[in-house]
Amino acid sequence: QPCSFKKMFAPGGFIVSGSRTSQGETFVTVAASRANELQLQLPGTEVFRKTMAAGETLQLISDGAKWEISH
């Protein structure tokens, strides 16, 4: 079932958006509104940590089997 959400505020000054297609692809975008360490756990993964600068954006993509990170 396709679904999406946009611009949810997360602790630490992060803004998160995401979507899932009817083919099962999942896209998550995280934007840092200020410099901080992102800590994110996605289904089937360990906690992902990355220090992000203010204004930096990170995109995570899944085909249903694995996650890829795009900066």
Describe the protein's topology.
Elements (H helix, E strand, L loop, with lengths): L2 E8 L3 E7 L5 E7 L3 E6 L5 E6 L4 E6 L4 E4 L1
Antiparallel strand pairs: 1-2, 2-3, 3-6, 4-5, 6-7
Quick structural summary:
The protein is mainly beta and 71 residues long. It contains no helices and 7 strands.
Strand line-up in the sheet with most strands:
1-2-3-6-7
User: What structural class do helix, strand and pairing data support?
Assistant: mainly beta
SSE string, helices as H and strands as E: EEEEEEE
Supply Rg: 12 Å
Fraction of residues in β-strands: over 45%
Mean pLDDT: 93
End-to-end distance: 27 Å
Percent of residues in helices comes to: under 10%
- Tally the helices: what do you get? 0
Low-pLDDT sequence parts:
none
Shape: globular
Overall strand count: 7
Please give the largest β-sheet. Answer: 5 strands, antiparallel
